[in-house]
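note to self: dont lose this again. the chain is below, predicted strucutre after it. 434 aa total, dont forget to put it in the shared folder this time
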Amino acid sequence: MAAGHGLFYPVLGFASCMVFIYMSFGGDVKVKLNFNKAPKLDFVKRNGTQFVVNGKPFFINGWNSYWLMDHAVDEYTRYRVGSMLQAGSKMGLTVCRTWAFNDGTYNALQISPGVFNERVLQALDYVIAEARQHGIRLLLSLVNNLQAYGGKTQYVKWAWEEGIGLSASNDSFFFDPSIRDYFKHYIKTILTRKNTISGIRYKDDPTIFAWEIINEPRCVTDASGDTLQDWLEEMSAFVKSIDKHHLVTVGLEGFYGPKSPKRLTVNPEEWASRLGADFIRNSQIPNIDFASVHIYPDQWFKKFTFEDKLKYLSKWMLSHIEDGDKELMKPVMFTEFGLSNLNKDFEPSQRDRFYRTIYDIIYKSAKKGGAGAGALIWQYLVEGMEEYNDDFGMVPWERPSLYSLVVRQSCRLARFEGVTQQQGSLKALCKQRQ
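---
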């Protein structure tokens, strides 16, 4: 018996130690093992007005889920990230646009200038690794022009609190040298980050489709556009000095500036040319690889009927695709589009027509090898996320007709590519529809 007890206690101690290790690290270990089986992806490049992967055309059908990193922070919400990416993959979607920022707010990634929350950085690691697991590429946005998740307002506040800010104006984000340095430090930290799950630095990870410098930039204190143009030239060059692999876009809404003839014929109204942004001028910057445009006619025209909005939608898209083909010689990607359910005349069937119009324009451009490179729905969620929803969001499988329309577009675009998305499930999905 003595000998038996002598063996028992070491075994018990070893077993207890293993349980502790499993409880502490088991989840992470399992994640790492799973992601070792992730599908191979290649970098997306640009060839003239088209995206290419391994030399073959790559047209994008995708969506926005801005909330992925935020929900990856806590274990009890993390499952939503995988559920959403898996759902996108099953629909044949290839790119998801999401925030790679959270400045100074709850679950902040950047707590103060140059001070980062490692727990939230690891949440971003998880989002990128999980996306690769499902064959989805990410368009990562680096800062918000709006106040949500901190944005440029938070950067200005930090500089003001430290007593080094030149102005309390939110637009000093674009011209204050100290704030520019804050943002450059942020860019460098994100781009050079080594993913704790995959072991790949972000700048070397083909899971990332492209970097978006800022969501919906406006600099209303300088309607000439010079301030924003100077900032975009500097920041795009800085990104490219660190990252030689990835594409870069601005994050524009698509409004034409004060010197553009289209300000009078295509912009919603005169106000759109006085926001300090200029679609043509900003997109012509050499380090900007493709143009970005948003589509929200119901936000721009409060008195338009739905039929009027559809007509304007076509005019808006065709104008920007023409710019890509003839003036920019770059792809044009519609990185947000949506139809509000708060419109007085809203009916769910209107979204079907709205989406179909967008998809048909992209398809026709792709068919003739044009600059219309793809479109991203704003926005998709999973069940139980009402507090993250807005008047555009939806759970994709809750409206079968719209779900079918999205899948149809994925399959139509895939025919031009030879399924370069490297999603084996997409080929099977499209065969079922034939």
